[in-house]
Write a structure and sequence with these properties.
Number of domains: 1
Shape: globular
Number of strands: 7
Largest sheet: 7 strands, mixed
Radius of gyration: 18 Å
Strand order of the largest sheet: 3-2-1-4-5-7-6
Strand content: 15-25%
Order of helices and strands: HHEHEHEEHEHHEHHE
CATH class: Alpha Beta
Distance between the termini: 54 Å
CATH superfamily: Vaccinia Virus protein VP39
Bound molecules: S-adenosylmethionine
Helix content: 40-55%
Length: 242
């Protein structure tokens, strides 16, 4: 194989993964219920990756119109393939989730709002929400009394992490209130890391250069997670404008 660029190596690692971040199929259903999202809703999956949650949202709300947006064309193409069976009511496009227009009854954003910042993202999305609309997002969350292993994981992955009170404060700063929150620990992370570990094992033989570096980095991340799997969490927050 000729040498890959860093970006090509990243996309090679992520090809064929079911999802690009932690999350479980039960999460969108929970958020739709907490947000009381209507049957004929307009929903957007912001930072959809390859569309794992877009598919779940489409199944959970069979009469809804669903948009999915991601900035990376490779993921957009994968999400288009996965959502093709739903026909016209699911539209996937390449774009910037900071510039959503709406109106949407639910903005779903799994493991991606940190690219904008919680406060900044919520502020940017306010005008894209329909009356009564809500935002559901997941964000790294430091659980109480973290062990050294948990601290080591986040020191590498997301040093700006806060506890749930810190996330609530960023929500309030954006002018939103919390409708519901739950922690994603264990299953949601296995759904991301176990398939990734298998993908690394497939790609490892003969891997050199940027690909070998990407595999090493992902393997080290998984090892740090395995050192404290019951302590590594995302907070899944459902919030609405005040
Ligand atoms: C960690 S992945 C999560 C993907 C998916 N939500 C999931 O849970 O599998 C974050 C995604 O956000 C996308 N992203 C980051 N910044 C973005 C932006 N400004 N506009 C659109 N997508 C963005 C990335 O391309 C990536 O696919």
């Amino acid at each position: 194989m000729s040498e890959l660029t860093k970006e090509e190596a990243f996309l090679t690692l992520y090809t064929d993964l079911a999802r690009e971040g932690p999350g479980a199929a039960a999460d969108p259903a929970w958020a739709l219920s907490v947000a009381a999202t209507p049957a004929q809703a307009r929903i957007v999956d912001a930072g959809c990756g390859s569309g794992a949650d877009t598919v779940t949202l489409a199944k959970e709300r069979p009469k809804a119109r669903i948009e999915a947006v991601d900035k990376i064309g490779h993921f957009v193409a994968a999400a288009k393939r996965r959502t093709a069976p739903f026909g016209e009511r699911v539209q996937v496009r390449q774009g910037d989730m900071a510039r959503l227009e709406g109106p949407y009854d639910l903005i779903w954003c799994a493991g991606a709002i940190y690219f904008l910042g919680v406060t900044e993202g919520l502020r940017a999305w306010r005008s894209a929400l329909a009356p009564g609309g809500a935002v559901a997002f997941s964000e790294p969350c430091l659980l109480p009394r973290p062990s050294a292993a948990a601290r080591a994981f986040w020191a590498t992955e997301y040093p700006q992490i806060s506890d749930v009170a810190g996330i609530r404060a960023r929500v309030a700063e954006a002018g939103y209130r919390v409708l519901g929150e739950q922690m994603q620990v264990g299953d949601a992370w296995e759904a991301f890391y176990i398939p990734m570990a298998k993908r690394i094992a497939t790609l490892r033989p003969g891997a050199t250069g940027a690909l070998a570096e990407a595999l090493d980095a992902a393997e080290a991340e998984i090892a740090r997670w395995r050192a404290a799997p019951s302590e590594i969490a995302y907070a899944l927050m459902v919030v609405a404008p005040e």
